[in-house]
UniProtKB/TrEMBL annotation, chain A:
SUPFAM superfamilies: UBC-like
Source organism: Extremus antarcticus
PROSITE patterns named in the record: UBC_2 (PS50127)
InterPro entries: UBC, UBQ-conjugating_enzyme/RWD
Protein name: E2 ubiquitin-conjugating enzyme
UBC core domain residues: 2-152
Pfam families hit by this protein: UQ_con
Automatic annotation (TrEMBL), chain B:
Keyword Transferase applies: yes
Coiled coil residues, start to end: none
Catalytic activity line of the entry: [E2 ubiquitin-conjugating enzyme]-S-ubiquitinyl-L-cysteine + [acceptor protein]-L-lysine = [E2 ubiquitin-conjugating enzyme]-L-cysteine + [acceptor protein]-N(6)-ubiquitinyl-L-lysine
UniProt name for this protein: RBR-type E3 ubiquitin transferase
Originating organism: Extremus antarcticus
GO terms classed as biological process: protein ubiquitination
Domain of life of the native organism: Eukaryota
């Protein structure tokens, strides 16, 4: 498995030098394709103070196919599906934009940037996106409420 | 329609380079009064040839069939032509043309305007290395995908210089081509790099099974990009059809085309031939049948409306004494009259003429009129569809019998061909008849519609006559030969009358029954 060497290398690098606000470990000792991430909500965002559990699945074709990322902690965000999947599909996470040299660390940096600055024009939740654009106050309020309710 | 003898005169491969979106200069541009007779004269008939041929019927559409080799040649020819013009290598020109969706003129114009920008957008940005890409072994190379750094590792880079090991490159290409069905826009694996992988590099890197798939996908994109080309939808058919009819023409023409595989289909919507009914009505009709037919058939057979509150009541037993579940009204299923008027004549309605029953039947009739109107057309539509299938079965049986008869009598195989011709005529005519009923459902009532219905009736009578002859026992068939041949010719002629007349009407604009044609109207 050529992919193993790559994944092990990424895992080593990410643990010695984790991206800001992220703690990463394998979900199960013997499965290097399933990563557990705990991400702190970025400061100056409604998510600040929250701790979000994100699961990353590396498909068996990784790194030729992008990793699949899901929020296991409920989050009120235009780019995360508001269901039990909590899926995010944005930028480099899309098959046609993903390039094999891209790394999980880049993905996590992107996710954190999107938490800090939602991308309503690329939304999966049209209603939340619309609120974000037209009534920021109400959006911030709900997002903060959800942090208190689910992400503590 | 005989498309074969037009093959040489339709459109040269040069014209194929035309604008996919708007190059209809040769087809009359945006002029909404394009005459299709006129239109076809632009397709390269020289006058002499035209004089020799019978005048084209109003419903016949010029088209041409291409094999995959023809299509490949078209692309190659265009690449060669544009490569000379732009002074670019063939591989880069192919990428440019795919980027420009094979709109030669527009591409050349843009290229002359801003060469650098076009090259960049097409995925042919600035070259870092000038030498043609090849597999190399480079000292100290580490693959950024698999992290291998074994000495002697073979690697490859496009002209952008992003280098990866050959194994990773192969896996990447396989994932794109097989996994994602991508071909025309496979980019360099380098992070953020838009350089497009060219066919030559692909040949260097992967085996022929993958390059075959790659070229197949490119061919598909080419046909999909060109508005005047479409694949024949018949399963396993590899041909593509070229036709000049555009989307906006489809209210005025039903472009039936004939593939070399014998399949005839509509170039507008790729459904099987549905002349004379225009695409939009076909779509509407099929949707309606899907939504309504099952329920409509059942409702008309098994339910009636309560004469008092009009809620639908299902008859669930043999008894005619009905009680509406909603308003408790009691009435007779047979005459729709009040049950109280029946006295003691249980189970046996003999009071069909009672006043209350008459009124109720009237109201019922009105509310059911539209449903019945639909069923009238649907049943005939459906009947021809079914009969076409039956006729086919009969032909297969007859074919066997004729083989027997042929060996027992002195008829030659040529002499029994009349049966096949009759069978084909039946299929064709029933196909047409079927769609005349869908079409008629949407027509407004006027003189022209009456002419249409007369033509339809004449065709239908002829078809039923011929169909009846078909069912005769084998020993009578040889005696019916001349008669059947005459009937076949007659059917074909009647069909042409229907199609020709409707095609002319469509061109002039048809008035539809807006009540049925309009949106959101459920009948
Ligand atoms: Zn590699
Ligand atoms: Zn590159
Ligand atoms: Zn075909
Ligand atoms: Zn059609």
């Amino acid at each position: 498995m050529a992919a193993n060497k790559r994944i092990m290398k990424e895992l080593g690098e990410i643990n010695t030098n984790p991206p800001p606000g992220c703690a990463i470990r394998l979900a199960k000792e013997d499965d290097i394709n399933l990563w557990d991430v705990t991400m702190d909500g970025p400061q100056d965002s409604p998510y600040t103070g929250g701790k979000f559990h994100i699961q990353i699945v590396l498909p068996k074709e990784y790194p030729f196919k992008p990793p699949v990322l899901t929020f296991r902690t409920k989050i009120y965000h235009p780019n995360v599906t508001n269901d039990d999947k909590g899926a995010m599909c944005l930028g480099m996470l899309r098959a046609d934009e993903w390039k094999p040299p891209n790394k999980i660390v880049d993905v996590l940096k992107l996710v954190r940037a999107v938490l800090a600055a939602p991308q309503p024009d690329d939304a999966v939740e049209a209603g939340i996106a619309n609120e974000f654009k037209t009534d920021r106050k109400a959006f911030d309020k709900t997002a903060q409420d959800w942090v208190k309710k689910y992400a503590k | 329609m005989d498309s074969d003898d037009e093959v040489n005169s339709v459109i040269s491969s040069e014209d194929l380079g035309g604008d996919a979106d708007s190059s209809v200069g040769d087809f009359g541009g945006d002029d909404s009064d394009v005459d299709f007779d006129e239109l076809q004269e632009h397709d390269g008939f020289d006058t002499q040839e035209k004089d020799l041929k019978p005048r084209k019927k109003a419903f016949e559409i010029d088209h041409k069939v291409y094999s995959p080799e023809d299509i490949q040649r078209q692309q190659d020819d265009q690449v060669a032509e544009v490569a000379t013009l732009l002074e670019q290598p063939h591989e880069s020109t192919a990428i440019l043309l795919r980027y420009g969706r094979w709109n030669k003129e527009r591409l050349i114009e843009q290229y002359m305007d801003n060469q650098e920008e076009v090259l960049d957008k097409a995925g042919l940005g600035q070259d870092v290395q000038k030498s043609p890409p090849r597999i190399e072994v480079i000292d100290g190379f580490v693959c950024d995908i698999c992290c291998e750094d074994t000495p002697g590792l073979r690697s490859f880079a496009l002209k952008c210089g992003h280098r990866f090991c050959v194994d990773c490159y192969r896996q990447y290409l396989a994932q794109k081509i097989r996994g994602e069905g991508e071909a025309a826009r496979i980019k360099c694996p380098g992070d953020g790099c838009n350089r497009v992988v060219d066919a030559k590099s692909l040949d260097i890197l992967v085996r022929t099974d993958l390059t075959d798939r790659y070229h197949q996908l490119l061919m598909r994109t080419y046909v999909d990009d060109k508005e005047n080309l479409k694949w024949c939808p018949s399963p396993n058919c590899v041909y593509a059809i070229e036709c000049g009819v555009r989307k906006r023409d489809l209210t005025r023409v039903v472009p039936t085309v004939f593939c070399d595989c014998k399949h005839s289909f509509c170039f507008g919507c790729t459904l099987p031939d549905h002349q004379p009914c225009p695409c939009s009505l076909v779509k509407l009709w099929l949707k309606k049948c899907e939504d309504d037919s099952e329920t409509a058939n059942w409702i008309s057979a098994n339910t009636k409306e309560c004469p008092k509150c009009h809620s639908t009541i299902e008859k669930n037993g043999g008894c005619n004494h009905m009680t509406c579940r909603k308003c408790r009204n009691e009435f007779c299923w047979m005459c729709m009259g009040m049950w109280s008027e029946h006295g003691t004549s249980w189970y046996n309605c003999s009071r069909f003429e009672e006043k209350s029953g008459l009124d109720a039947r009237d109201a019922q009739a009105r509310s059911r009129q539209s449903l019945e109107r639909y069923l009238h057309y649907f049943n005939r539509y459906h009947n021809h569809e079914q009969s076409a299938k039956l006729d086919k079965d009969i032909f297969h049986k007859t074919e066997k019998k004729m083989t027997l008869l042929q060996s027992a009598s002195d008829m030659s195989w040529i002499e029994v061909q009349f049966l096949e011709e009759a069978s084909q005529a039946l299929q064709r005519c029933r196909q047409t008849l079927k769609w005349t009923y869908a079409f008629a459902y949407y027509l407004a009532r006027n003189n022209e519609t009456e002419i249409f219905e007369d033509n339809q009736k004449n065709l239908e009578l002829a078809v039923e006559d011929l169909s009846e002859m078909f069912e005769k026992p084998t020993d009578q068939l040889s005696g019916l030969r001349v008669e059947m041949m005459d009937k076949t010719t007659f059917c074909n002629r009647r069909r042409i009358v229907v199609l020709d007349d409707t095609a002319k009407r469509l061109k002039e604009g048809v008035s539809y029954n807006l009540h049925f044609y309009g949106f959101g109207v459920v009948c």
